[in-house]
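Aim 2, interim progress. The first record below pairs a target sequence with its structure tokens.
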Amino acid sequence: MEQQARKLLNLALRLGLVVGTLWLTARFLLPWAAPLLLSFAIAGAMEPLVRLLVRHRWRRGLAAGLTSLTVLALLIWGLSALAAWGASAAGELAGRLPSLLAGLSESLDRQEERLLRLIAQAPEELSDTLRLALDAMGDWLYSLPAELGRWALDALRRLAQRSPDVLLFAVTAGIGSYFCSASWPRLLAFLAAQIPEDWKRRLSGLGADLKGSLGGWLRAQLILMGITFCELLAAFWLLGIGSAPGMAALTAFVDALPLFGTGIILAPWALGCLLLGQSSRGLGLLIAWIAVSLVRNCIEAKLLGDQIGLHPLASLAAMYVGWQVWSVWGMLLFPVLLVTAQQLNDRGVVRLWRKV
């Protein structure tokens, strides 16, 4: 009995050490090393093209520089196209805003009259409470544009305050990716030299396994995006929304981004439709949002587990702990960290738990 209690205590200490290490890594080390890690990842992604140029007798520094400039040009083009699209959409919205506000005001007046008639038919002790609630709701709705304006200005102020940090991060990652690519073989040799020989034997093949795990994670995200796209496309077609494929693709892409989700598009859209008197479309968008969120939450853990080789329960636990530690980024990162720990444990590099 005492030996079993000692084993359980040992297991609990190991798990606590793993969780503590993951928390410290996500809380401190990752934010500090993020631009350099991103540089390393970008250099690794560029390496096939750089290697191809080197085989055609290009100097590695020149090949790395050309590839880095190409990636930078594509990134600037993509961001510029996105900014131009956003400016065009904002200009179109600004042109339609007076008519939308007029329609919204008329719709609110009609809804208020309808609610007042219903309240007048209620018992007297209840009608006063309902009338007060309606007045409070009306005050909130009429103050909503000013609140949204203040929120937008506050967001712009925070963005302006953070812009030096974002710029420094981008410059560090961009320059670092060139230096990593230009010295890629020496960099890999240096990192390999820091690993003890015993670990090297145990880690042989780990890179291929991790590449497979990361590929599985990417496949899982693409499958989830495809499922979300199909669900939204069907919902938009049923609701008679114009440009349904484009809107479904945009919403599915936003849903795949960290810190976002379908609600960032569907919730304000549904609220606007309800306020403008388009009740059926607004309710349909809300139902679509709830359905898509339920489907994603139900299948995400199972799908990630199947693609990266984790038990669904372990994948679910990693996503939950990741959310508690580092929000949405943690939900994306912690399953990958857990599968890495699993492979290290299976190869005997660390002993976190016993295999059965």
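The second target in this work package is listed in the same format:
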Amino acid sequence: MNDQQFQENIGRICKNDQEGLRMIYEDYCALVYSVTTEILHNREDAEDVTSEFFIRLWDIAHTYRPGKGHRAWMITIAHNMAIDYLRKHKKENRTGDILDNLQSGKSSMEERLCHKLSLEQALATLKEEERQIVNLKIMGELTFREIASVLKKPQGTVAWLYRSAIGKLKEVLL
């Protein structure tokens, strides 16, 4: 969904048209879930926060201002909601379900599980901050500027941490 389509759907939400929310939900549910999972490290909590995100989006749609990037706006909200959830529930060291989000393909379940495990292990070698940046860059398709805005860090630091994290992943996976 491009910025224009997003803006149109936000306008629909502001007019109490649920179709606008449905369109945004279909395009961005996976992204919001990915952001919340990265922070919460728990599938059930991430699902709860993701659901709450779309309820909140309905309530705050009128606050969206075009021109600053709708993906970064949504990721910032999802990020803040997940942090608030952590603070409220004091759940800091939760682990996720290894079998979540197994990619479908022609390979056997065992091969996919081994690939998923090696990727999970590689990501586990990264620092929390590096994992968040890699997730936002790859899954969120955000620019370094947008990531810097979400994480409230200098753009150069974000780019450096991303390149460092990718280097570490290459070492572990190759």
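The chain is about 75% helix and 0% strand. This observation will shape the mutagenesis plan for the next reporting period.
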